[in-house]
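Teaching assistant's notes for section 4

Start the section by putting this record on the projector. Ask students to predict, before seeing the second block, whether WCX domain-containing protein will look compact or extended. Collect guesses on the board.
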Amino acid sequence: MSSRRDLVNLKNLESSDDYDILQITSYGIEGIQAWLMGFGDKVEVLKPQSLREEMLVTAKNMYDFY
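Reveal the predicted structure now:
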């Protein structure tokens, strides 16, 4: 499993009382996916589309499991 050190840079692009839009630069999406899943339903991946789709598959698999 990847660790937080895969996270290279985190930049806050926009903030409000309801949300934050972050730009995350990493060595790959594999390590960042686990980190993002730690936020549960409080995170939505906008880009890249490939990571968004992987998060959806993971969420569906978790739903089917439970």
